[in-house]
Amino acid sequence: MRIKLNRDQLEILLDKAKDYNSICGVDEVGRGPIAGPVVSCAIVMGGDHIDGVKDSKKLTDKKRRELAKDIYSRAIAIGYGIVEHNIIDEINIRQASLLAMKQAIDNLSDKKGNPYKCDLALIDAEIIEHDIDQIAIISGDDLVYEISCASILAKIFRDDIMIEYSKKYPEYMFEAHKGYGTKKHYEAIDEYGLTDIHRKTFMKKYYEQRNKSNR
C-alpha cells in the first residue's frame, strides 16, 4: 500500500493505520542548507504521547532537546539516514532526501541494537522506493505524532553534525546557522571560499548573481 494524503485527510491515515501493529514515523531535515548533509530519522514510539511534540521547526533548540530526552526514553526503535553533500550534488536534493528516508527505515534498531522491522511507515509528504507499506501526508511533521518525533530527532542529529563541523571550519559559523544561506554565511564564503562540505550545485545561482553584480 502506498497512499499520499493532503493535510485535511488525517482521518484516512488514522483509519488505515489502525490495521497495523508496528508503525514508524519518518522525516528528514536539511533540504535547504547550502552545506552539510541531509538527515532523516525513522522512529517507532511506545507509551503515551509526549506533551509539546510538534514540527521541529516550531520549537526552539532548548525545547527540542528537552523533548528529545522523553522521545528517546519512550522509543521502541530508532534509525537514521545520512546523505552527504557530495551525493546531494550528484543526485539532487530531493532524491538525496528520499534516499536518507529509506536508509533510516533500513537502519531501525531497538535499544539493544537489534534490527527492527515495522509494518507501516508514516512519512512527511513523500513516498519512497521501499517495500514497506507507506502513507505520506502533507504537513505530517506537524500533524502526526510519530513524524513529529522523527522530525525533532533528525533536526538535533543534523544540528550536532554541523556544530562539529564548526570546529573544523570556525570562520563559517556553522554552529549558528547550521549551513543555511544566511548573510554571514555568504560573507564567509566570499572571504574564504567554499569548504569541502558545501553543496556546489546549491552555489551556482549565487555565483551567477554575484558575477552579474560585479560587471
Low-pLDDT segments: none
Number of domains: 2
Helix/strand/pairing category: alpha/beta
Question: Helical region count?
Answer: 9
- Span of the ends, CA to CA: 55 Å
C-alpha Rg (nearest Å): 18 Å
Strand order of the largest sheet: 1-7-6-2-3-4-5
Specify the helix fraction band: 40-55%
Largest sheet: 7 strands, mixed
Q: Determine the oligomeric state from the structure.
A: single chain
CATH class of the largest domain: Alpha Beta
CATH level-four homologous superfamily name of the largest domain: Ribonuclease H-like superfamily/Ribonuclease H
Please give the CATH architecture of the largest domain.
2-Layer Sandwich
Task: Provide the residue-averaged pLDDT.
Answer: 95
Q: Which sequence of SSEs, written as H and E, runs from N to C?
A: EHEEHEHHEEEHHHHH
Strand content range: 15-25%
Binding site for a divalent metal cation: 27-28, 124
Subcellular location: Cytoplasm
Protein name: Ribonuclease HII
Function: Endonuclease that specifically degrades the RNA of RNA-DNA hybrids.
What does this structure look like?
The longest helix has 24 residues, at 145-168. Helices cover 44% and strands 19% of the residues. By secondary structure, the protein is an alpha/beta fold. The protein folds into 2 domains: 2-155, Ribonuclease H-like superfamily/Ribonuclease H (Nucleotidyltransferase, domain 5, 2-Layer Sandwich); 167-214, no CATH class. 40% of the residues are buried. The protein is built from 9 helices and 7 strands; from the N terminus they run E-H-E-E-H-E-H-H-E-E-E-H-H-H-H-H.
